[in-house]
Fold:
Amino acid sequence: MGPGVSAGAAAVPTGDPGADPAGWADRAVQAVDAVATAEELRALDAALLGKRSPLTAARQRLGTLAPEERRAAGGALNEARRVVEAAVERRRHALAASERRSRIDAERLDLTEVLASAGARALGAGAASAGGGVAVWRQGLVHLVQRTRDQLEDVFVGMGYTVADGPEVETDWYNFEALNMPPAHPARGMFDTFYLDIEPEESVVLRTHTSPVQIRVLQAGQLPVYAVMPGRCYRRETADARHFPVFHQVEGLVVDEGITFGDLAGTIETFTRAYFGPDISARLRPAYFPFTEPSAEFEITCTICHGAGCRTCSQTGWVELGGCGMVDPAVLDAVGVDAERYTGFAFGFGIDRCTQMRHGIPDMRALFDNDVRMLRQA
Amino acid sequence: MRVPLSWLCDFAPFGDRWQDLVATLDDLGLVVEAVEHVGQGLDDVVVAEVAEIGAIEGADRIRRVQVDAGDGLVEVVCGAWNFKVGDRVPLAPVGTVLPGDFRKERRKLRGVVSDGMLCSARELGLGEDHDGILLVDRATPLGTPIGQALGVAGDVVLDVAVETNRPDAFSVAGVARDAAARMGLPFRLPVPAAAATGDREVAALAEVVVEDADLCPRFTATLLTGVVVGPSPQWVARRLTLAGMRPINNVVDASNYVMLELGQPTHPYDLDRVAGSALRVRAARPGESVVTLDGVERALGGRSVAPGDDRRDCLICDGDDRPVGVAGVMGGASTEITDATTGVLLEAAYFDSVAIARTSKRLALRTEASARFERGCDPEGIDLAVARLVEILGESVPGLRVAPGRIDRRGRVPAPLDVPVRTARVNAVLGTDLDDVAVARYLEPIGFASAPASPGVQVVTVPTFRPDTTREIDVIEEVARHHGYGRIARRRLRPPQVGGLDAYQRERRLVRAVAAGLGADEAWTPPLLGPEDHARAGIGGDSLVVANPLSPDESVLRRSLLPGLLGAVAFNVARRAGDVRLFEIGRVFPVPGPERLAAAVRHEHAAASVVDEAELLGMVFAAPGDDATTAVAAWSVLAQVLGLVGAELDQGEPVPGLHPGRGAVVVAPEAGAAAMVRLGVVGEVDPDVAAAFGAVSGAAGQAGRVGFLQVDLGAVLRRAERRSQEVRPASRFPSSDVDLAFVVGPGTTAADVRRTLEGSGGPALQAVALFDVYGDPSMAAGERSLAFRLRFCAADRTLTDDEVAALRAGCVAAVEQAHGARLRG
Structure:
């Protein structure tokens, strides 16, 4: 019996593996298969294959043999070791599986006990012994970006808007074509797009903006439309301090009779003051988006320096927030809305950017680490 | 695009009020991203003669130099060695401000006082040369300001961001045109002087064949002889440098200059190296390649880069049909202009913008030329560009001759477009109050001719340099830009509806509040997972895969929130957070079937999406003491808040990813359906799965458990079966409690017994709850005792003892019969 093998453990085969490697291996495998616990197996493994095992000793004795004998004997010992090692591995898995089975069985719970004991405290009976609730010692927090989204929704709801949702996986038509970007349109290059590995008849993409929800809202056919559409978008951009391949936008859409660019400018101004504060103003300047015409970028008074000029706003006093414009007639045409009778505007901007600005978060990536040390602030 | 102010002033009298110009350009949408002042100090640095050069003791890299700028000797310390006594060099006296706001102070080096500095070209902002001191013509009078000596003045360079739809503004002249129009200044294009002509007609000297006119609607070739290749005139080199291009030689520089100035790329070929003096324009054939000017071999006709891409690359070939350039992108090395060039065949063409864009993308080769062609050049701007190029080249090549006649292959070239514009529509879109004349006044200075058609309608002729403008709405945008977005009166819009969230959106917020109230922080985990993440979480089946992921770890759309949430738990456990509970509300993306796909690509219904995207609530409980029961209790609270009735737990089958003995499917009956609807899963994460994600700390003896709840919010919140809104007053009569303990077998759940009790207690049964679970060796294997408290109360009277006893007996009998249970003594 080798060292480290306690009494009552599996029997270690006798005999010199050097004299009869195959026979020794057979007996060793039988011993391995007979082991009943992982602990015993560990001990037996050491006794059979460890540094002080007879197998190792036989191996060391090879040096005394003549070269050609040594080769044959060495091969036989290697084979014996391989066979026993495989048996130990097999047994290890079998024991682990059966240990897992018995542990699982022992831990089996009737989870309905928790539901059946609901209300027991109200009856003055205390909770059932099988567990009676969720111990709470602190309030969890809603994600910073989600809070921003809720606040934005609330501002727009207060301004008379409804909130709409749309799919994150979109067809090429909704994400591009209906938004006045036919397949060859150069503006598609503005969007680094993730494509899915399914192509029914057209490409399927992860939406690059919330604008396809405009199309779906218009397609639903209820005019007028006064809606905002917050949601998750995807762009194939390497993450940096201001970009993340998964990000969040809120889109606004108004389509009604008599809507003008003046309404758009007024709406942006109203929203800016309501959300950022009465001393924050907005301005529009010409830009290009395929789905709006005229198009504009909107900038707001820098929230860091309040317009005095600082590093954040490159001394201009303004920071860019988003894009907007009058809905291009081609977009209305694509969904069968009479572009002569109805006009409208759309706007969109990044929810994550707003969160960054509001909470002074320098690196956008930190918003998606899910580090509770950060989630639990503010 | 870098635009020097001095260059803009060639086209309109902007003066030196660059601040006004910047504000105007910003307001026109030609945003100035940076302003650079160049040539600082050019008036203060003076020409000086080197009078004496001496060594400094103990220094072998610097020397003391005596220079004379006309008013006595000045000693400076200098580290350059490229000059000798008698040379004339730029001296920056103490106090001079050099480019980069660098103020030259008096310094002491190795005990020698340096009263100024001798400057390299780079230090003066005049070029990249920094190998030595700039040497000035020896004839230059001492003390002359260096700017005057070299004929260069200070300048302001504006870095203008040009939107992709404005090819016309991708040139100095185009920027000037827009700004001049807005500022009410006269704008004029250059009028090149007529060039000296050669003897022989161009048609006799060169030949051009355009085989694929769709790729190249217009191609002109001009033949120049008597060319002497050399450096460009100083002013040309200077402007190219300011604009960010490196001067190369007078031929290439003239071509680049004209491209920057007018937006028309051209390409000069060495005439002698073009076989047959002929150019052939055609689509590349499979397997063809060309070595471009940068020495790289470019294989053509490669992969498709856009839907509907026919992969046709436009090539320029010589008389032997060998490729000599990638049209509109980059010329070939074999016909490059060299010092030996004496004849130039000059290409000035109009290529199909989409084809150039695709070729450029295919080759991953973006050049100044391709950037302009892919946005759309002016097919009618070619002749001016060629004349201007000849004029500029002629300045450094007095013997330059242009072969008379023209080679001009024209296919279908866009013509000026007539667009009727209704003034009423302009005002309806913009909210302005403009009249016909005001509209025309905004358009004419930017080259849009306007002719009245009828009162309130004018026909606007859009020039060929504005391919972005094809419709009335596009013209309206031009009116808006030149009127000024800021001048359009803002109106407070009041929607004719009441704003609000819908029921789902309201309740989703409620769910969030409840989840947070249960001590969980909201996490947002990535919707894109690695290919093994589902399997690692014990979840089988296929996923949607991204064809072009940024990395394999973010290539598969999730079908469960479990992998992401476990990852987030692991992240925090690794940072030794001891009380992690997280929740997430997010979408999952099951693989759609063929019918769903077919419906989605018809785009007929707003509700037909590609994927049945379910919005799930996921919660993980990994704080001390948390386990399966924590998750079930959380579900119980949620169901209570939402007033959900009839939901049950089904532990019949193991739940993927969860502990086989501690997982359940949350189900609920559906009106009119026999089978129960699945709402989600609840229980404890399989210990092997939790370990695989590193979501448990793994410290010996501390078998951490992770509770998990995941429900489909849509399925839960859109359920019709909710608690009634009706509220009954509480009974004024006393109630009676009855405690019953039943011994039940392994097949009976606590919920089964509770349901039976609820069903048999009659209207007087006010409440029932399990309050004790107990097992002991006296019971058979798998048996346990479940103790319930029942509270009876009638609305209209006090229940008598006999009535309560009868109710109790009824309940006991029902449980004994339904579950084979026995009442414990």
